[in-house]
Amino acid sequence: MSADLSPLTLETEMPEKQGPPLPQSPQETINTIVHYYRGEMGRMAGWRDRIDRTSNWAITVVAAMLSVSLSTPSSHHGVLLFAILLITLLLLIEARRYRFFDVYRARVRQLERGYFAQILAPEGTQSFKWSAAIAKSLRRPAFLMTYKEAVCRRLQRNYCWMYLILLLAWGLKISSPKISSTGVPFGHVQSWSDFTENAALGLLPGWSVMIGVALFYGVVAYGSLRREEHEGELAHGEVHV
């Protein structure tokens, strides 16, 4: 194999060479910071756009499944349970994207608080903790929140309301009377046994489906009401995603 086609050399195995020159004047440093800020803003905006797309997909799924399930009395309530499954998948995807977005947002906010805000309205003595934090993140990028925290935060922002809408629609579906093939309603829901009968899903009895839905929504309620121990960027201001 020729030298041009050899595998990429690890950074630690590369021969020591002189790198690009560092800024030598305050003006060069300012220009570097400005260009870096623009780059981080672009990366943050890109991940923010991915988050919004996932939320838009989830809203579209909810609207489509509600239309299919509630448009005709004869449609099965399992359509709404399938919608809950799809929303959960989109929530997990969005939580992963949110963790990446949080890394780049933190760098942007540290620049804004520690540098630009100090230029516009200096407060106290100048501190370089923000630049040390950004340098550490650039040398060894790491997530600032766990996957569980990201799921809970997206639940609190958007998905708890989608889950609530689907739960109300599902409750309405299993409490509505069934429709015969001729379009005449029969079997009006009058007792708990009627609820469990309507909630049956294939071979699963209605009571097991209802217990499963109750347990799932217990987890959703916990995630929606949970408060983080370390607020991170939420400790600075009220405008957050």
TrEMBL record:
Under InterPro entries, the record lists: UCP01500 (IPR014470)
Q: Looking at the keywords, is Transmembrane helix present? A: yes
Spans through the membrane: 78-95, 160-179, 199-220
For this UniProt record, the keywords arranged alphabetically read as follows:
Membrane, Transmembrane, Transmembrane helix
- From which domain of life does this come? Bacteria
The record's region (Disordered) falls at 1-26
The residues forming the signal peptide are none
The UniProt entry, under Pfam families, shows: DUF2270
- What is the protein name for this chain? Putative membrane protein
